[in-house]
Amino acid sequence: MTPRFLFFLIFPIILLQSVGAFLNCEQCLSQGKHYCADDKLCNSAICLNKITKSINCPRTPNATYDDVEARTKWLPLFGAGATNAKMAQKCFDNNWPTMKLSTRILVNCSDPSPILPTTECAMITAVDTSQRVLVMTFRATVGNTQLGEEILNYFVAKKKFFDIGYIFEFFYDAYVSLWRGGLETEIRNLKYKYPDYELWVTGHSLGAALASVGASWVVKSGIFRPERVKLMTAGQPRTGDYDYAMWHQNTFAYSFRLVHAHDVVPHVPFQEEIVDKDKMWHHRTEIWYNNDMTPGSPYKICPEADGLYCANQQLDLSWNDHTHYFNTDLDVYGDQGCPKKT
């Protein structure tokens, strides 16, 4: 066997071992190397999209996303959570007739500062006894004062969430206000009355962050098992830190974050803060519609939790894309009784 033949026999093996061709993403990162999303190899010398955090290791969702179900069931839930009790039931009557409003909770969730005016947070619960589904759906931000409180909070404080990481203080305090304002009693009573039902949790914008917290809260409180909880949010801001996001995506099989094209809100707060780098993260799974979201529009099921794929590629951001999902203006949809799409 000639030296040249040995070289051509051994060199490919050395090359494959050097870039970790036989290592998956998690194994690669555990060795202190980077995983390349472009060529699916470990420690590639040339790589445009390097993965350095295991939360972003490419993964296929454990549940199936259904565009039709999102439009016909989850969209009306967004609208119902954003309006009053009467119009919430009309949202159900127009789109999901077997779903019945249980209660609406409205609480003061404003910053305790005596200077700022009072702001409120709202959500509703509902029950479908034919399809065996319970619902918690949370309202989005209302008014510039509340929006200002949220934005200022991004630079102030975070709170420990059980034993699984930290979430933004505003989201934590707002959810606790709802929980103590009647949600705990309501959800425990519903669980007692309908012990085998699924729990669907949802919301848009601020409501999306509260939905993420709410789904996590009822599981950590031992009220629901995670396999009985479904979460779908729209335009969700980053809600918690790396540990929270990792726990969430390892706990819930059915958890989808809808992002419309250039929606600005999923990009805030910034993942890399000036003082504490890489602190805030999205959990899986992002469903990205890079279009107007009319019926039949394509979407991408994003392989990374919060990497440079999908919506994070966008540099030009839009408030209009934040308020419009499934070709529907969510600012008025609920107050109109969620008119059925034809």
Please give a structural write-up.
The protein is α/β, with parallel strands linked by helices and 342 residues long. It folds into two domains: 3-52, no CATH class; 58-336, Rossmann fold, CATH 3.40.50.1820. Helices cover 34% and strands 20% of the residues. It has ten helices and 17 strands. The strands form five sheets. Strands 4-5-6-9-10-12-14-15 form an eight-stranded mixed β-sheet, sandwiched between helices. A three-stranded antiparallel β-sheet has the order 2-1-3. It has a two-stranded antiparallel ribbon with strand order 7-8. Strand 16 and strand 17 form a beta hairpin. Helix 3 (67-81) runs antiparallel to helix 4 (85-95) and helix 6 (169-193) packs across helix 7 (206-220). The longest helix is centred in the middle third of the chain and has 25 residues, at 169-193. Pfam families: Lipase_3 (PF01764). Keywords: Signal. It comes from Caenorhabditis japonica. Residues 1-21 form the signal peptide. This is Lipase_3 domain-containing protein.
Show the helix and strand layout.
Layout: H1 3-18, H2 25-30, E1 35-36, E2 41-42, E3 50-51, H3 67-81, H4 85-95, E4 100-108, E5 120-128, E6 133-138, H5 143-153, E7 158-160, E8 166-168, H6 169-193, E9 198-204, H7 206-220, E10 229-234, E11 240-241, H8 242-251, E12 255-260, E13 280-281, E14 286-289, E15 300-301, H9 320-323, E16 324-325, E17 328-329, H10 330-333
Parallel strand pairs: 6-9, 9-10, 10-12, 12-14
Antiparallel strand pairs: 1-2, 1-3, 4-5, 5-6, 7-8, 11-13, 14-15, 16-17
Helix pairs in contact: 3-4, 6-7
